[in-house]
Amino acid sequence: MDTRKIVLSVLGLLLIAVSFYAASVIIANKNTQKPIPKKVVKTVFVQTVENGIVPIVISANGNLMAKRRVELYSEVQGVFKPGSVLFKPGQKYSAGQTIISIDAEEYNASVQSSKSNLYNLITSIMPDLRLDYPEVFPKWEAYLRNFDIQNTTPPLPTMDSEKERYFISGRGILTNYYNVKNQEQRLSKYRITAPFSGVVTDALVTEGTLVRSGQKLGEFIDTSVYELEVAVSKSYSDLLKLGEQVELVNLDNSKKYMGKVARINGNIDQLSQTIRAFIEVRNPDLKEGMYLQANLNTKEEAEAIEIDRGLLLEGDKIFVVRDSILDMIDVEPIFFSDKKVVLKEVPNGTTILSKPVIGAYAGMLVKVLKDMAKTEE
């Protein structure tokens, strides 16, 4: 039994010694200092401020529309006759060329009949004119000689006296004459001609179609001149001038065109508080519906700089670098575009960031690197 007690006592002492050793190790580990992380210094791009004249350019987008457009409607009824060229979208016509011809044989016969009646009516009064009004007989006789049923009815001779006017009117000649002229005017509507050189953009009928009065037949545009409608803030409405040159940019291929301000709307849109301006442009490469950006030069701002919008902080501040440490200064933004902002009250020689820095704050230690792109500009 004594031996057993001795073994248990030794084991107890060993357990106590191990516990003390483990505790001392834990305490020693707690007092071990954590490694100090290396301080990271971010590299920033900067530029030196040089105030100067900054042109204020307003950018506005829109779709091109033909300046001259005609919607083709029929004022008469009949069958669409085939022409020398097909009436199809994309078909070109010269000024005065027939675009649409409607069968008018039946109506033409009616007009010819009315002309014949007028001719016969004037012929019937010639004996009376010879006897009662010999002084006007020669001019009415010359009128009959020049009267051709196949051509447009010529104007009636000028009636110099009231007696002659009463006599001619009393025989119904004036009424018949104006009826014939009215029919001739209507007959001309059976043929639609191109008011200017252009192209058909929409064709709603084809040859052989029965055309009805009032029916829309298609659209015809002038492809030599287009207009771009843009909306400009009312604050710049007094800066827009008629005839001012405007640069237009195709956003798809960056191709540029030159236009001019052709019209400025006198009303301000109540909802958007903008004013509409119309820019005229001519170029054979342009097509209706093309999406272009217009850059309107409104004015020039002196003693100002232009930077990326991402560099302007909340509260109208920007970051500057002083002795490799970031700081913030107040600025006065005077114009915003989609990507840029024009600032004033930035002292010359100030070193400012030229590219945004993630996580930047005032007092941050930075490594300065000149922005070569900005320097070259």
UniProtKB/TrEMBL annotation:
InterPro entries: Beta-barrel_RND_2, MdtA-like_BSH. Residues 69-218 form the Multidrug resistance protein MdtA-like barrel-sandwich hybrid domain. Residues 228-299 form the CusB-like beta-barrel domain. It holds the Pfam family BSH_RND. This is HlyD family efflux transporter periplasmic adaptor subunit. It comes from Sediminicola luteus.
